[in-house]
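Take a look at this chain, tokens included, and explain the fold to me:
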Amino acid sequence: MFKYRAISFPLLLAFFAAMIFWQPWGRYLFLAAGTGALFLLGLEFFAMLESLHLPSYRKTGAFLLAAGFFVVNTMNGMLFASGGHVWNSIRIAAASWGALLLLLVPFIGWFLLLFVKDKQSLLKKLPVTLGGVILLFITFLPLVTTFGTFWRYAYIGNGNFLFLVLVTKSMDTGGYIFGLLSNKILPGGNHKIVPSISPKKSWEGFFGGIAFSVGVALLLWKFNLQPFTMGIWMTVISGVVLALGSFAGDLTESALKRAAGIKDSANIIPGMGGVFDVLDSFIYNGMLFSVLWFVSKMNMQ
């Protein structure tokens, strides 16, 4: 697994760097990659629910999730990229039509009852599908708004998204490295945290991951590539909070996989599993980052 991860991780890192620094095409890479990733994530999530005897419209749900990401990201880009009344009018109109279509979805479900022969299947699948789409969409929506400032203020967006992703994934990387080394070095192996949910998670990896996240946060702060302007202590706090959120997200997906009786959400990314296995670190961190940003701004006023 390590040799496959050693190949996949640098490739993902290079793609991420292209999204951040390749002007002006990085934002389009983010749009394309995000839309595709959310579609695959939706397929993986609904497949796990189906293994729990919760049937759904997998492809329809995944499409709605990806389409929602595409529309919100595009509208968010228009909002930040334009200061004129024309674009603002387009944004308001699109948001209005989007809200109307969202409100019509349940009525479409009711209307289908008049024509679908297997009405019991519809009533079982529709709530699961819509509930899953809403759950995932709200969970990962802050990632879109974090990247959104990149459309108009490239430097601010750069700092936002760069800080969020690198500090979050540093918990994964640091935890994996420290957990692996401690398990080999310590007599009897390392000390497990919650073996019933994630057998490989250890206290050594947990604290090592936090230290790694804080170290990366301080490195970004040193080179002025972070969004918080409150000084070193806010940077340290942000590193700890995002590390804890990353760990909690990983455990949350592990609990879901354990309930579904699977090891990985998919086998798309060699050594890492599926898209959900990569994005699980952001289940909580999109919202946590927004809170940290808000707190930093409030303290500056």
The chain has one domain: 2-300.
